[in-house]
TrEMBL record:
Function recorded in the entry: DEAD-box RNA helicase involved in various cellular processes at low temperature, including ribosome biogenesis, mRNA degradation and translation initiation.
Ranges of residues in domain Helicase ATP-binding: 37-208
Annotated PROSITE patterns: DEAD_ATP_HELICASE (PS00039), HELICASE_ATP_BIND_1 (PS51192), HELICASE_CTER (PS51194), Q_MOTIF (PS51195)
A Pfam family annotated for this UniProt entry: DEAD
EC annotation from Swiss-Prot or TrEMBL: 3.6.4.13
First-level EC class: hydrolase
Protein name listed in UniProt: ATP-dependent RNA helicase DeaD
């Protein structure tokens, strides 16, 4: 274990935490981790001055998880984050690092999602709460004892919290926790307001400051593609149709994902294999040798399984799953563009991962430009180009070596040389679609391709990818003169289209013909209303309630 996790093992972390770090391929602690982890483990309050991208989430998550008792079914750690996106990112990190800790539960508490399930998770004993201040104060109004058992508090990006006006909420939260708690504050800057919080609420904190260093990967052409999580396999297959690669390594987060994607690629005729931590060393060596000599063209790997992999043929790296931190991204794409060679790195980004994309760009000091999913015409052109390139070298001496056979076959079959050539092409291409109509039928456009990238909905209930694709369906096109509006009420609130229709008709003074399509999703609904006078109408509906819950209808901006 010590060898696997390098310097982490020397920091005094729980053995289960070290096992989780090995599984995700962490090797050496970053500077902020090396300095902060021992301080937090010691129980001392701390101020960490560090930028996003320095590994600060692990710097507080790892020692706090090492101190938490999973057997105690009560909130023990509270992490406050300024935004819903960061709260989700931090909660995901805690879940990743605690995979080897049975009984430990994490709940993300943020606005835009129903309060009931969040409060239920807390009452059922989630040991870690990751929250935005505003929503947490809402919970405290319902149950002032929610935070009475908190032993560890982290303020992440404290300066951003103050910029967003959360000072009063923070004071309410501080008062609701035991004074004996350990408090840790992270902030990129330390203005007077942050220092005032530290002086009032932290006890003799140790101050750690880490400079952010830029990592450059100039030899590698980088691009990202916005795609929803349930579209990733389709997006990978479409990209591979048009990317001109020699060998490619694709990175995913889990062992199962390596097997699933490699199998999908094999089914499409690619020479692909999986590489993960369950694969024996001799098999691993065979996979790498096959990639080197051309028997394989694609390897789908986890971070830990790709450690030390150096294959000169690799021209492309595809980040199918977003890496956990910017350092991992730099390591991944460094598998190409080595020794002065050029390389290309593609990154699939889901809407909830936009923030990490921005962090990667800042840490690497480079813009990761956006590309669109290839359309059917581009796929067709790429297929014909590959076919042309495969046949061109054969034409030079084909007539001399096979001309007589051609004459005999056309005579025996009773067909023209053109008909025979077409039949041989059909056989050679194995039924592959090679007309525009066929490509469009076989490869329907993934939502978001050929148009603007999928946008994160402003009031959207951010839900984990595993909950399925119902929340991600692209809205149907709008009729002229209509605007689409959104409410956070959905099917799980017991809402049906007729409920929304009735409320809007009663309160808005509209006729049935004024209201267009109503789409009820799991955690929100979309309603089409007249564009003319919309702001006035929304004002009239401001206090409307449906099923006892506020409608809060507002304009839905898709761009």
């Amino acid at each position: 274990m010590t060898q696997e996790t390098g310097g982490f093992a020397a920091l005094g972390l729980n053995s289960n935490i070290l096992a989780a770090l090995t599984a995700v391929g962490y090797e050496e602690p970053s500077p902020i981790q090396a300095q902060a982890i021992p301080v937090i483990l010691s129980g001392q309050d701390m101020i960490g001055q560090a930028q996003t991208g320095t590994g600060k989430t692990a710097a507080f998550a790892l020692p706090i998880l090492s101190k938490i008792d999973p057997a105690k079914k009560e909130p023990q750690a509270l992490i406050l984050a300024p935004t819903r996106e960061l709260a989700l990112q931090v909660a995901t990190a805690f879940e990743t690092y605690s995979k080897q800790m049975p009984g430990l539960n994490v709940v993300a508490v943020y606005g835009g999602a129903p309060m009931g399930p969040q409060l239920k998770a807390i009452r059922q004993g989630a040991q870690v709460i990751v929250a935005t201040p505003g929503r947490l104060v809402d919970h405290l109004r319902r149950d002032e004892k929610v935070l009475s058992t908190i032993q560890y508090l982290v303020l992440d990006e404290a300066d951003e919290m103050l910029k967003l006006g959360f000072m009063d909420d923070l004071e309410v939260i501080f008062e609701a926790m035991p004074a004996s708690r350990q408090s840790v504050l992270f902030s990129a800057t330390l203005p007077h307001s942050i220092r005032a919080i530290a002086e009032k609420h932290l006890r003799d904190p140790q101050h750690i400051k880490i400079a952010s260093k830029t990592q450059t990967v100039t030899a590698i052409e980088q691009a990202h593609l916005m795609v929803h999580a349930d579209q990733k396999h389709a997006a990978v297959l479409r990209l591979l149709e048009v990317e001109e690669f020699d060998a490619l390594i694709g990175f995913v987060r889990t062992k199962q994902a390596t097997l699933d994607l490699a199998a999908a690629l094999e089914a499409k005729g690619y020479k692909a294999a999986a590489l993960n931590g369950d694969i024996a060393q001799n098999q691993r060596e065979r996979v790498i040798e096959s990639l080197k000599d051309g028997r394989l063209d694609i390897v789908i790997a986890t971070d830990v399984a790709a450690r030390g992999l150096d294959v000169p043929r690799i021209t492309h790296v595809m980040n199918v799953d977003m890496p956990y931190d910017p350092e991992s991204y730099v390591h991944r794409i460094g598998r190409t563009g080595r020794a002065g060679r050029t390389g290309r790195a593609l990154l699939l980004v889901t809407p909830r991962e936009r923030r990490m994309l921005q962090v990667i760009e800042r840490v690497t000091g480079q813009k990761v430009g956006e590309v669109k999913l290839p359309d059917a015409q581009q796929v067709l052109d790429a297929r014909i180009k590959k076919l042309t390139n495969s046949l061109a070298p054969l034409v030079a001496d084909a007539e001399a070596s096979h001309g007589d056979l051609l004459d005999r076959l056309t005579a025996d079959i009773g067909c023209s040389p053109r008909a025979l050539a077409a039949a041989l092409l059909r056989k050679a291409t194995n039924g592959q679609a090679l007309t525009l109509a066929e490509v469009q039928r076989d490869q329907p456009l993934v939502p978001g391709s050929g148009s603007s990238a999928p946008r994160e909905r402003s009031e959207r209930s951010e839900r984990p990818d595993r909950e399925g694709s119902r929340e991600r369906r692209a809205p149907v096109p709008l009729a002229e003169g209509r605007a689409r509006c959104r409410t956070a009420l959905g099917a799980r609130d017991g809402i049906a289209a007729k409920n929304l229709l009735g409320a809007i008709l009663n309160e808005g003074g509209l006729t049935r013909e004024d209201i267009g399509r109503i789409q009820v999703r799991e955690s929100f609904s979309l309603v089409e209303l007249p564009e003319e006078g919309l702001d006035r109408l929304l004002g009239k509906l401001k206090d409307t309630r449906v099923g006892g819950k506020p409608l809060k209808l507002r304009r839905y901006r898709e761009d």
